[in-house]
Design brief:
Largest interface: A-B, 77 and 75 residues
Largest sheet of chain A: 2 strands, antiparallel
Order of helices and strands of chain B: HHHHHHHHHHHHHHEEHH
Largest sheet of chain B: 2 strands, antiparallel
Number of helices of chain A: 16
Distance between the termini of chain B: 45 Å
Oligomer: heterodimer
Distance between the termini of chain A: 43 Å
Strand content of chain B: under 5%
Number of strands of chain B: 2
Shape of chain B: flat
Shape of chain A: globular
Helix content of chain A: 40-55%
Radius of gyration of chain B: 27 Å
Helix content of chain B: 55-70%
Radius of gyration of chain A: 20 Å
Number of helices of chain B: 16
Strand order of the largest sheet of chain A: 1-2
Strand content of chain A: under 5%
Chain lengths: 408, 407
């Protein structure tokens, strides 16, 4: 196995920083066809960058909380479209996407509120430390009510008023409410968290995995949303046969070292996140070869222009860049002090990563997919499964969560 | 850029003709979607105005069609289309509503067979159409049958498309609902397989895929013998469909998953006499799995199903577990063990999934063994450990799991 592929830190930073001006251009085809999910795109880029740079630098580089640095000169006032982020900060953009008529956030301006983009919006505001701003507090109740309105009598969640049901939406709802501190708010008729958890549990399949709704096929992405939601609800006890689930998850590792989403499918970098985070919550990350996975992710980098692709040799995109970096973070590759497997190399300087570089790397939380310091600051609740009975073996980033040992 | 080769993609971007074309497409898209958003009259301050101009509604509808045919992913576009379709000022054209939406979603799905928005819209359209037609409309039956046909076609193109499998189960859910309510009451048509009253034992069934206003329970279930037979026949057709898919390609995890849901249902509805039916299904499934694993031992698909089948067939899970049942189960397991043993030998011992299968059976034998862990003279505990040792060598990536199992 080649252990000499560096992590192209600077290239990835440049790639992420250059995205906005590329995507927001009115002649960008990619920008046009992804316009509807801009909110999520921004969340992926901000969070990825947050794992590579200290918070202040992220803020400055991305105009997160203020818009004083408009770097790219290829923009002009005529370029402003409904989805442009020029002349406004990202937090401004998020607020512009608030859909008054529903109480949710749309994927872009003037688009219908949906639970998916509501979570992305809240995640961005959390990173930007903007959840206590007046303008957010003014709409907070409406956002909570929007989420409440989506829960069905069986505990499931719709994505919006049109009624599509999917366990992804259960995760988005619980995570959003947790970010808002409204999960256990008895006085305000919040959602029924227990019913939500029971519904999710009813989605467990013959192989231990979870799908979009009861009866749907197991899929690694859906498994993350279900395990994550049960963690937030602190109902991991509802999982049947955790060992079977963890076995199914670890068998997603292919010969290439990459992970696939279902048996006999191709490996894809994004599963590095969906599966690794699930295994982190369930205490079984060691059931895969971390070395080979890290190597696979590194092979998916674009060594010329930065960014990470779904698999080696493919074109990069921000989605896979985020999940690739998040995966490396969970593996500990970006953090030498965790006994990281591969050294972080700075290609430009031709030297190994120095102390300053290591200190900059924030970590990612597997339950909320946010930097751990953000999760701790907001005191977000969660639960992890510790099969080892020895709590000293619990990963440092999970220590603030309650531990379930599997005892009844 | 999921799944697109980097060098080709970058070369295309550099090609000025392609770049111009894409830039034009982007501008066209932006212009159209801007027009649409203006028509929606949606602002931060004021709610939407209901358009009263029939001509304008049709025009806007056509606009959504143009956009969605190119890019079916934006949910807000489908939302807007539905609002227009529900607008009371929309001129009614009998019969063409469903065809129109079927055509659009089909075009969209050809573009992106995994577009959540397109699949949801199709579900919504079918339900909307069926709610407007009368209960005994023969058209409903053929509409639903045609949808199953579409699923069959799409699954020929991509047999693992879970959206398509979900949609198939959605349609079957509506068919079941029709049978269960005898078309006598308002149906919710959310895709849930509502079989309460028909089953004695609780089964995992298919859940709702869209929301509905809840209907009183009394309206829904009318369990009687005649219905049971029709329900059985419908589910048997689905069962046969999964058999067909598996025989086309053993590596079809989606078909096996579907089968895992159908099996417990069929067992309860199959009018053969109790225990023999269970044994028949058990043997049948073992044979199916055997064909698969002997054809392609390294494909993990059917091995997962084997684990499920063995667990499902275990008489311990039944209320009235008789000694004869346990004996039959144990002897069947032993036969299976011999079969897999032969397979692994044939692969020179280098058959990871075979070894996992052997370990699974050995562990089960340990649990079942009343004679101090022995059956047919084999020491199952010793065998179990030896399989783990072999697996540790053969599958080093998952060494940690095997170590855990050895404890």
């Amino acid at each position: 196995m080649s252990s000499s592929i560096p992590f192209y830190h600077n290239l990835h930073v440049q790639y992420i920083q250059s995205l906005a001006s590329k995507i927001d251009s009115p002649t960008s085809y990619e920008g046009a066809v992804t316009e509807h999910l801009r909110m999520s795109g921004i969340y992926w880029s901000i969070t990825a960058l947050s794992l590579l740079l200290p918070a202040e630098q992220v803020d400055q580089a991305m105009n997160l909380t203020s818009c004083c640095n408009i770097e790219n000169t290829s923009t002009s006032p005529e370029n402003k479209t409904t989805e442009g982020t020029k002349n406004q900060s990202i937090v401004d953009f998020v607020h512009d996407c608030f859909d008054e008529s529903t109480g949710g956030f749309g994927g872009n301006k003037l688009q219908d509120g949906h639970i998916l983009y509501t979570l992305s919006a809240l995640q961005i505001l959390a990173i930007a430390n903007a959840l206590q701003e007046d303008r957010f507090l003014q709409i907070k109740r409406k956002v909570i009510q929007f989420i409440q309105s989506l829960q069905q009598s069986d505990g499931s969640f719709a994505g919006d008023k049109w009624g599509e049901i999917d366990t992804r939406f259960s995760y988005c709802a619980l995570s959003s409410l947790s970010l808002l501190g409204a999960l256990n708010d008895d006085s305000n008729h919040t959602v029924n968290v227990q019913k939500a958890a029971e519904y999710i549990a009813s989605c467990q399949n013959f192989d231990g995995g979870f799908g979009c709704h009861p009866g749907a096929e197991s899929h690694a992405g859906q498994i993350f949303t279900c395990v994550g939601a049960l963690s937030i609800a602190k109902r991991l006890d509802l999982l049947r046969d955790v060992d079977l689930l963890c076995w199914w998850l670890c068998e997603r590792q292919c010969d290439s070292g990459g992970l696939n989403g279902r048996p006999e499918k191709q490996a894809d970098v994004c599963y590095s996140w969906w599966i690794l985070s699930s295994l982190s919550i369930l205490g079984r990350v060691d059931w895969i070869s971390k070395k080979k996975l890290a190597s696979f992710i590194l092979k998916c980098q674009d060594e010329d222009d930065g960014g990470i692709a779904d698999r080696p040799g493919d074109m990069v995109d921000v989605f896979h860049t985020f999940f690739g970096i998040a995966g490396l973070s969970l593996l500990g590759v970006l953090h030498e002090e965790e006994g990281g497997i591969l050294k972080v190399l700075d290609v430009e300087n031709g030297e190994e990563g120095g102390e300053e570089r290591k200190a900059q790397y924030r970590r990612i939380d597997p339950v909320y997919a946010l930097p751990t310091d953000v999760v701790r600051k907001l005191q977000l609740q969660g639960q992890i499964w510790n099969p080892n009975k020895d709590s000293s073996l619990v990963d440092d980033r999970l220590r603030s969560y309650s531990i379930y040992n599997g005892d009844m | 850029m999921h799944g697109q080769k980097r060098d080709e993609y970058k070369a295309r971007l550099k090609d000025s003709a392609t770049a111009k074309k894409l830039a034009l497409k982007a501008q066209q898209w932006n212009a159209l979607s801007q027009t649409l958003l203006k028509r929606q009259h949606k602002t931060q301050e004021a709610p939407k105005n209901v358009q009263a101009d029939a001509h304008q509604i049709l025009e806007t509808l056509h606009l959504t069609e143009k956009l969605l045919a190119v890019n079916p992913d934006p949910v807000y576009l489908w939302n807007f289309r539905r609002e227009l379709l529900l607008n009371p000022c929309l001129p009614t054209t009998d019969g063409s509503f469903l065809e129109q939406e079927q055509l659009l979603t089909q075009t969209a799905l050809q573009r992106n067979p995994k577009a959540y928005g397109a699949w949801f819209h199709r579900k919504w359209s079918i339900r909307h159409h069926l709610q407007k037609s009368t209960d005994n409309d023969p058209d409903s039956k053929s509409v639903l049958q045609a949808e199953l046909g579409l699923c069959g076609e799409l699954l020929m193109l991509d047999e693992r498309n879970f959206h398509c499998w979900n949609y198939r189960r959605f349609i079957v859910g509506i068919m079941l609902e029709k049978l269960m309510t005898d078309g006598q009451s308002a149906m919710v048509m959310d895709g849930e397989w509502k079989l309460e009253g028909l089953l004695e034992d609780k089964c995992d069934v298919i859940g709702a895929q869209l929301t509905t206003k809840s209907v009183a329970d009394e309206d829904v279930a009318l369990a009687n013998k005649a219905v049971a037979l029709e329900v059985y026949q419908l589910l048997k057709l689905e069962w046969d469909f999964t058999t067909e898919k598996i025989e086309q390609n053993f590596s079809n995890g989606s078909a096996f998953h579907c089968r895992s849901k159908l099996l417990p249902l069929l067992l309860q509805l199959d009018t053969g006499s109790g225990d023999d039916v269970r044994t028949e299904y058990f043997q049948g499934e073992l044979e199916l799995i055997r064909n698969a694993v002997f054809t392609e031992p390294d494909d993990q698909t059917s091995w997962w199903y084997l684990r499920f089948i063995i667990s499902w067939a275990n008489p311990r899970n039944k209320d009235d577990c008789k000694t004869e049942d346990m004996e039959l189960f144990q002897s069947t397991l032993y036969e299976e063990w011999m079969s897999i043993h032969e397979l692994v030998e044939g692969e020179g011992g280098k058959c990871k999934w075979g070894l996992l299968g052997l370990h699974m059976i050995a562990s089960e034998m340990c649990k079942l063994g009343e004679k101090g862990g022995r059956y047919e003279g084999e020491n199952w505990e010793k065998l179990s450990k030896s399989y783990l040792v072999q697996l540790r060598d053969l599958d080093p990536d998952r060494r940690s799991r095997y170590d855990t199992m050895m404890e």
